[in-house]
Amino acid sequence: MSFKDTLKHAGKRKQLVDVLAKKGIKNTAVLAAINKIPRHLFMDSSFEDHAYQDKAFPIGAEQTISQPYTVAFQSELLEAERGDKVLEIGTGSGYQTAVLCELGLKVYSIERQQELFKKTKLFLPKLGYRPKYLSFGDGYKGMAEFAPYKAIIVTAGAPYVPKPLLGQLEIGGRLIIPVGNDPQIMTLLIRKSATQFEKHELGEFRFVPLLEDKN
Ligand code: SAH
């Protein structure tokens, strides 16, 4: 893999940021992160020329790197501040993980495909990104060891909201999760108390499925 990041890439990145801003992304820290991260390095070099289009691309193991608009939309919804603890379900290529690191968050992330887990764990530090913990496991269970989290972001389509994720949010914490089958409804759940959650539905998106372990 080549780690070349040229002025041409930077120029295309800036154009992508302009597209996202036009589509309604306002958070300047999120836009700055996307302006900085060399997305072309998170995908196969055969897609390099297309890396700064606002599109999802295959990353192997039948998975995709999410569309930049979706990454930006979910990142903005976190409303997290520097130093906050955030859990990501579906590390995948690590692109969303890198955005969370750029936002100054303490990032925990889970991936269930071993091939992607191994690859991304080695790759992120090479670009200078150091999430607190990358786990190979089942995102339906969350990561209880480090809970509670200020926010949890799910980057695959969930057939339902996994209960453990709700339980691992701090009071005031936010779960951003696409729910349903093709398309999914982007759903924001804010924990108001031990037992109460406020729910917001924020439009249709398309994700690969959050896979459930059969055992
Ligand atoms: N954030 C990633 C998105 C990858 S697509 C990126 O920007 O590249 C969704 C990811 O969720 C895939 O890598 C898939 O393997 C993973 N996934 C699916 N089901 C999962 C589960 N139950 N637990 C953890 N990860 C899961």
Give the low-confidence spans. none
Bound molecules: S-adenosyl-L-homocysteine
Shape: globular
Order of SSEs, N→C? HHEEHEHEHEEHEEE
Averaging pLDDT over every residue, what do you get?
A: 95
Which percent range fits the helix content?
A: 25-40%
Strand content is 25-35%
- Rg, rounded, reads 16 Å
**Main sheet summary:** 7 strands, mixed
Cα(first) to Cα(last) distance is 36 Å
**Major sheet: order of its strands?**
5-4-3-6-7-8-9
Number of helices in the DSSP assignment: 6
Number of strands: 9
Q: Which class of secondary structure composition applies to the elements?
A: alpha/beta
Question: Can you walk me through this structure?
Answer:
The structure is a single chain. By secondary structure, this protein is α/β, with parallel strands linked by helices. It has helices at 7-22, 28-36, 68-78, 95-102, 114-126, 163-167, and strands spanning 57-60, 63-65, 85-89, 106-111, 133-136, 149-154, 169-179, 184-191, 197-205. The strands form two sheets. A seven-stranded mixed sheet has the order 5-4-3-6-7-8-9. The protein is globular, with a radius of gyration of 16 Å. The structure holds S-adenosyl-L-homocysteine.
